[in-house]
Design a protein that fits this description.
The protein is of the alpha+beta class. It has helices spanning 27-30, 72-79, 110-120, and strands at residues 60-64, 85-92, 99-107, 124-125, 128-129, 131-134.
């Protein structure tokens, strides 16, 4: 019986890859004929109307750059000055339950929303300069698990540190 070398690699010797930087990634060869964007079933549903530079006027304003400690009650108090509100919603992180630093405020009329945007944009709230603009989001974002659910990746040593 011929002697075999004891390699630590599980792949046969003839599959060995070159260590040159050019041939490291195989994704380029595999991606031919594939689209360059997400294949998620939710990715084809557009969430935004218009763009951030010139948002369409609407009854909903987004408030950005908020302190993590700003509450819906405080926003209600500050923004109710411009007219009756339908809803105030601080966007929270799904895992920690903490504010993500922005909120949406829904007015009953477009005129009230416009007045609030003009008056509050650039003001300071809870020690933070806020940006107020019309929302470009058409609908609520689909909830996600809050963590990457794609293919698991592994490092060469299996994620363990050697010491």
């Amino acid at each position: 019986m011929p002697s075999r070398s004891r390699s630590r690699s599980r792949s046969p010797a003839y599959v060995r890859r070159s260590r040159s930087p050019k041939s490291r990634s195989r994704s380029h060869e595999r991606s031919k004929g594939r689209r360059d964007h997400s294949r998620s079933p939710m990715s084809n549903r557009r969430r935004h109307d218009g763009n951030r530079e010139a948002p369409t006027v609407s009854k909903c304003v987004g408030v950005f750059g908020l302190s993590l400690y700003t509450t819906e009650r405080e926003l209600d108090k500050e923004f109710r000055k411009f007219g009756p509100l339908e809803k105030v919603q601080v966007v929270l992180d799904g895992h920690s339950g903490r504010s993500r630093g922005f909120a949406f405020i829904y007015y009953e009329t477009v005129e009230d929303a416009t007045e609030a945007r003009e008056a509050m944009n650039g003001n300071e709230l809870d020690g933070r300069k806020i940006r107020v603009d019309f929302s470009i989001t058409k609908r609520a974002h689909t909830p996600t698990p809050g963590m990457y659910m794609g293919r698991p990746t592994s490092s060469r040593d299996g994620g363990r540190e050697r010491g």
